[in-house]
Amino acid sequence: MTASRARASSVLIIANSAAGAVTSDRVLEVLDVCARHCDAVTVQWVGRERQESVEGRVVEGLARADLVVSVGGDGTAHWTARQIVGAADRAENRPALFVVPLGTGNSNYRNLWGDRPWQEILRAALAQPRIMVRHLDMARVVETGELILLGAGSGLVADVLLLARGIEATGRARYQAAVERSALTHTPYQGRVLVDGVEIQHGKTMLVNVGGGRYRAWQYDLLPHAEPDDGLLDVCVLGDSADPAVLPELLRHGLHVEQPGSAYARGREVVVERTDGNPLLFEHDGELRPATGARVTIELLEGILPTLSGKVSHVGD
After folding, report:
1. What does the alpha-carbon distance between residue 228 and residue 52 come to, in Å, rounded to a whole number?
2. Backbone φ and ψ of 308, nearest 5°
3. Are strands 287-288 and 295-308 parallel, antiparallel or unpaired?
4. CA of residue 44 relative to chain centroid, distance
5. To 5 degrees, how large is the angle CA 200–CA 203–CA 204?
6. pLDDT tens digits for range 39-57
7. For the segment 101-136, what is each residue's pLDDT rounded down to a tens digit?
């Protein structure tokens, strides 16, 4: 759903000092774009202090902000989205989010804006007399209460995060190398997946991916039919029939969903289980979660996150 709001007059910039491409100069560039169109702009650095101290100041800033600009990667976007959702009980009372992509994957940005420059998007959005806001879906892990912004997965998509820790390359090349290695070495697990109570997979499982965003690690189109605000979670399951040698290329172009043994569905609740008695290796938003059980339940949270709309009509004019 896309709606309009009054012009953004107060902006809170949340900059992650731990993100490799976030520098003072880049943050000043973001500040300059916002200051040209907004009455008040505040910068809050995160990543240098104790989390509870930072969160307290961010909560104060959110109470005054119309727009929150997350400067960093997908992890920063996820952290910022959680703060926004927690700032008010109703979506219409929450400030809108915009992500400046200065991280490794930047998939949240790509899912909304493709490869268009962030400066162009932000200038065009703030120059309008009313800003356009798109209410995105999020999800929640029922067992823990954790919020999911980008997506979640098990199997190969979780295994990649483990392998990436031992790869010396940096940036997207690191995850590409991890995907290629995992495709050749990953052992499918015995699992089951239910979408709104209907079983779509039972048996050897190479990967499961759940969410509302198409891309992971920028370049992998894991959920090619996903829309971030359609009120549904997309679910892709891949069995063990895909050729490991070509799997990375299939994932890059969304062609894995056409492979024998794959399943694709949409729903509002997804259950992912491991049925061989071992803990389920599970990740969301690019972070591995503690392996505490064999079952994860993911439920949709519809339209809870306001963001600057991806439908700015006069971008580039």
Report:
1. 30
2. -60, 135
3. unpaired
4. 21
5. 115
6. 999 999 997 654 556 777 7
7. 998 889 999 999 999 999 999 999 999 889 999 999
The length of the chain in residues reads: 317
Would you call 22 exposed, middle or buried from its count of C-beta atoms within 10 A (0-12, 13-18, 19+)? buried
Q: Which fold has domain 2-137+304-308?
A: Rossmann fold (3.40.50)
List Cα–Cα distances, 152 to 171, 211, 284, in angstroms.
Answer: 20, 6, 4
d(CA 269, CA 294) in angstroms, rounded, equals 17
User: In this structure, what token pair is assigned to residue 164?
Assistant: 């990436």
Would you tell me the crossing angle of helices 24-35 and 118-127 to the nearest 10 degrees?
A: 20
| Tokens of residue 28, six digits | 């000043």
Indicate the DSSP class of residue 257. Answer: G
> Could you say which of 3.10.450.50, 2.60.120.200, 2.60.200.40, 1.10.3720.10 is the CATH number of the domain covering 147-303?
2.60.200.40
Report d(CA 80, CA 97) in Å as an integer: 8
Domain ranges for the chain: 2-137+304-308, 147-303
Q: Which residues contact 291 (CB under 8 A, 6 or more apart)?
A: 279, 280, 281, 282
The two structure tokens encoding residue 152: 């979640």
Helix or strand or coil: residue 228?
Answer: coil
Is the separation of the CB atoms in 216 and 105 below 8 Å?
yes
First vs last C-alpha separation in the chain: 24
